[in-house]
Amino acid sequence: xxxxxxxxxxxxxxxxxxxxVVANNIANVNTYSFKSSSVNFQNQFAQTLWxxxxxxxxxxxxxxxxxxxxxxxxxxxxxxxxxxxTSTGVSNDLAIQxxxxxxxxxGENYLYSRDGALEIDADGYLVNGATGxxxxxxxxxxxxxxxxxxxxGATSSISFPLDTALASETTYVNLGGNxxxxxxxxxxxxxTVGVYDSQGVLHSITITFTNSATDNQWTWAASxxxxxQTGTLVFDAxxxxxxxxxxxxxxxxxxxxxxxxxxxxxxxxxxATDNEVAVTASDGLEAGTFSGFYQTPSNGEIYGVYxxxxxxxxxxxxxxxxxxxxxxxVVGQNMYEISPNSGDPNVGAAGTGGRGTIASxxxxxxxxxxxxxxxNMILAERGFQAASRIITTSDEMLQELVNLKR
Length: 406
Hints:
Elements: H1 2-27, E1 37-43, E2 46-50, E3 65-68, E4 71-78, E5 85-87, E6 93-97, E7 101-105, E8 110-113, E9 116-120, E10 126-128, E11 134-139, E12 156-157, E13 165-168, E14 172-178, E15 188-196, E16 202-211, E17 217-223, E18 230-235, E19 241-243, E20 246-250, E21 259-269, E22 276-282, E23 285-295, E24 301-306, E25 311-317, E26 319-321, E27 329-332, E28 335-337, E29 346-348, E30 357-360, E31 362-364, H2 370-404
Parallel strand pairs: 14-21
Antiparallel strand pairs: 1-4, 2-3, 5-31, 6-9, 6-30, 7-8, 7-11, 7-26, 9-10, 11-12, 11-25, 13-23, 14-22, 15-16, 16-17, 17-18, 18-19, 20-21, 23-24, 24-25, 26-29, 27-28
């Protein structure tokens, strides 16, 4: 009689655990990157009343007689299937489409998460907004167009140079417009060109066009800030450009490197109308300060964006994959740590080695199926209710046994 009560108690305890897991799943239905868990039951050992026997002679075989002694917890297994990606409109929010985890460092240990709600802290580090843990990756080497990043080896915290500024030196200037075909020989026309040195300082260069005695030819001369180059501009009989482009060097830069830029007159004409020449295209930018960042979805490269429109490769996010993700241990705050059965992290770039890609402006939603969880809640309730009835019935039978003495 007492055996049935112990068996029912094991069922009560397990169905309480079952309900605890269901309640946690439902509570986190709107938690970004949350992974639901499922409960598996196992029967406990059984008491053998007699063992079985094999057939012999004229006697048939006998099956063993065993009485089960209840139920026990088999496992609580998290489900790491992909949650729905939810658009947030915030470029700092990142989600992994596919397998893998972001890598974070809490000052002592590496942690792993699918939660990519990121912020830039006061020191310029890219961190998880809720915990302050620094996201890991590989920093770029070099600056400007020569910057590269190697996604291998040890990772480090991604940080941005908040107190630095970037400028871009001018390398080309295209001029367009018209030189009056009726200009007298020897008369001039000036056009002003602005170019930037490597420190972002603007230099004003004057291009002086002089109509030469040779038909359909003009000479040009650069002046200002040490520029002294000259050349000949040739047009055909219809006033269309033939040749004349060149290279100009600015030497008076106040400590910056000389500015060497190509000047192109291919968009100029010589027609019988007023002189009018202007810059149609050029590069080079004044100094700009850090204003934000973006990442490429294919491989997770991080670029800093500056107020002058320049971009600079900062680094590349690291993505970790595991042989057995359900073996990870939950540590709270949407974070996991490795366990003996998760395997070691295999860290690499997004989109490689079976790792997913990164979507900017999205967060991964919970993968909880509310319909299934409500069904599980009812199953837990019914199982608990049935086990409690066993205790009630066993108690009544014990009461009858006590009454036999009377």
